[in-house]
Design goal:
- This protein is mainly α and 66 residues long.
- The chain has one domain.
- The chain is built from two helices and no strands.
- Helix 1 packs antiparallel against helix 2.
- The longest helix has 27 residues.
- The chain starts with a helix and ends in a 17-residue tail after the last helix.
Amino acid sequence: MDAWHKACECIRYWAERRRYLEIAEPLRAGDRAAIAAILHRWEAEAARIHKVERYWEPTPFPIEDG
């Protein structure tokens, strides 16, 4: 694997790690509101990245129902 691919893998690893760490504490604490807020933000980011924002409508996650 050349240096470019190693660097890309490293960047991808740290981005994923940040996401896991971001949601880890709310999961441990059972903080449903914080978990839902993170998931809504991630969902909005994905809609923007995939250029489907105009079709996407946020809806509640099952953990928000009760």
